[in-house]
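job 3f2a | input accepted
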Amino acid sequence: IRRSLLDQINGIGSMRKRSLLNHFGSARAVESASLEEIKSVEGVEEKVAKKIYNFFHE
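job 3f2a | predicted structure (58 res):
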């Protein structure tokens, strides 16, 4: 898996990154996703979903 903005988020390892990219197709799509959409990804619990969402929206 190539490097992306997801690599800059603490708590996002290669497995979660793969799950997110498989679900959304790109890091840019993850960036546009709602918190609920991120939470719906297998292996991404609420705490991590909030980290991801806040990384792109703060």
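job 3f2a | The mean pLDDT is 93.
job 3f2a | closed
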